[in-house]
């Protein structure tokens, strides 16, 4: 087992186990919290530097761990180190093996291996970060948020998408008033790929806050109904699709066995002189190519089928997020990132002399949620209670 990452110490009683180093772990938690609040790696590094937080190497030196390292500035955090911490699965209790490999048998140089070729062991040690927070941070990192030309950054940056063309919405500021518009909107250009989809940041904040408050209230009052509804909806949508994929997997596996039988036959025919070498190699190459293609197809289909088993887990993760909030009075970057994956912005429409604009919120782990009216919620609760009574009778 390699050296423990920043935030952990090697167990003196068992060298293969790691213990949480609470002093360093507090910094790790702060880094993840800042990311959830909308700060990027560079901004986080600047904050740690300003607060005179020792870098991981300087911290180890101060504790007499490893080889002492002399640095002109022990607080000189770099954004690359922040990124490394944010992406490390060790902080959710998972160990990662085979991160690198040698270039060749005689070479001492090592190169990183792709993530799909690494080995992962879950629950190997005490986690510092909740898996829900870690996963959310990875999603935030994938939609990296950049400042606009004036240096401004919004909590919504990277989360907004055009309902018509799918492009992201860019942050613009005119007379100190921030707003968003579709990235493909060309203004006065004749070549207009999309319309503006203009929405003011303050108006968007009010819309999202109102929907989040309604959503949280719904979950707090009708948690059981929500869980049942999400699972039933998902199963209904995927039942036919999963059945077709399962049948294809069985068909592919049957063909794989048939190819194994055919390969053995042509091998025996070649050994017995019934099949010349040229014909043997041609057939075997074809069989091997087909087998490899089938393996990849089976792997992909199996992954898609197994995804359906995660729906209940995903709902539970969202419920866990809501348990952390009794009410939402203000829309902060942390609240937004905890609840929302993305927001689809529709173009404004004129209805009855008034302009209206709709947004679709994709909630963390479950996507769009159709929140019922109060009357519908009471009816759903009644149906759920009746179903539960029948099952326990």
Structural description of this entry:
The protein is built from 11 helices and 14 strands. Among the domains are: about 10-140, no CATH class; about 240-310. It has about 400 residues and is α+β, with helices and mostly antiparallel strands. The two termini are about 55 Å apart. Helix 1 (about 20-35) packs across helix 10 and helix 7 packs antiparallel against helix 9. A hairpin with a 2-residue loop joins strand 8 (about 170-175) and strand 9. The longest helix has about 50 residues, at about 225-270.
Q: Level of helix content?
A: 40-55%
Identify the strand order in the major beta sheet.
Answer: 7-11-14
Please summarize the sheet with the most strands.
3 strands, mixed
**Low-confidence runs of at least 5 consecutive residues:** none
Q: What is the overall number of helices? A: 11
Proportion of beta-strand residues:
5-15%
What string gives the helices and strands in order?
A: EEHHHHEEEEHEEEEHHHHHEEEEH
Gyration radius over CA: 27 Å
Shape descriptor: globular
Q: What is the strand tally? A: 14
Label this structure with key terms.
11 helices, 393 residues, three-stranded mixed sheet, three-stranded antiparallel sheet, alpha+beta
């Amino acid at each position: 087992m390699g050296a423990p990452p920043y935030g952990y110490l090697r167990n003196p009683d068992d060298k293969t186990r790691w213990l949480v180093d609470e002093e360093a772990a507090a910094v790790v938690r702060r880094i993840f919290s800042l990311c959830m609040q909308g700060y990027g790696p560079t901004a986080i590094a600047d904050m740690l530097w300003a607060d005179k937080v020792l870098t991981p190497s300087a911290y180890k030196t101060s504790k007499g761990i490893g080889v002492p390292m002399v640095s002109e500035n022990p607080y000189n955090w770099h954004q690359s180190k922040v990124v490394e911490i944010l992406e490390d699965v060790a902080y959710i209790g998972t160990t990662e093996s085979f991160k690198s490999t040698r270039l060749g048998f005689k070479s001492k140089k090592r190169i990183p291996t792709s993530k799909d070729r690494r080995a992962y062991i879950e629950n190997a040690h005490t986690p510092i970060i909740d898996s829900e927070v870690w996963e959310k941070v990875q999603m935030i990192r994938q939609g990296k948020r950049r400042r606009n030309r004036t240096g401004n950054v919004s909590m919504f940056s990277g989360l907004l998408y055009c309902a018509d063309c799918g492009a992201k919405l860019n942050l613009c500021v005119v007379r100190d008033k921030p707003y968003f518009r579709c990235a493909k909107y060309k203004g006065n250009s004749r070549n207009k790929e999309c319309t503006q989809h203009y929405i003011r940041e303050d108006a968007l904040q009010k819309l999202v806050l109102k929907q989040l408050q309604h959503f949280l209230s719904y979950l707090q009052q009708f948690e059981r109904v929500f869980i049942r509804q999400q699972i039933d909806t998902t199963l209904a949508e995927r039942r036919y699709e999963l059945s077709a994929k399962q049948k294809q997997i069985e068909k592919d596996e049957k063909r794989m066995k048939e190819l194994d039988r055919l390969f053995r036959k042509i091998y025996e025919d070649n050994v017995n002189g019934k099949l010349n070498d040229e014909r043997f190699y041609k057939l075997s190459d074809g069989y091997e190519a087909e087998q490899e293609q089938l393996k990849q197809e089976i792997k992909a289909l199996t992954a898609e089928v197994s995804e359906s088993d995660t729906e209940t887990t995903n709902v539970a993760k969202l419920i866990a997020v809501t348990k952390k909030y009794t009410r939402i009075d203000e829309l902060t970057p942390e609240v937004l990132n905890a609840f929302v994956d993305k927001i689809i912005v529709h173009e404004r429409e004129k209805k009855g002399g008034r302009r209206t604009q709709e947004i679709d919120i994709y909630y963390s782990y479950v996507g769009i949620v159709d929140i019922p009216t109060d009357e519908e919620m009471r009816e759903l609760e009644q149906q759920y209670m009746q179903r539960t009574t029948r099952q326990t009778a």
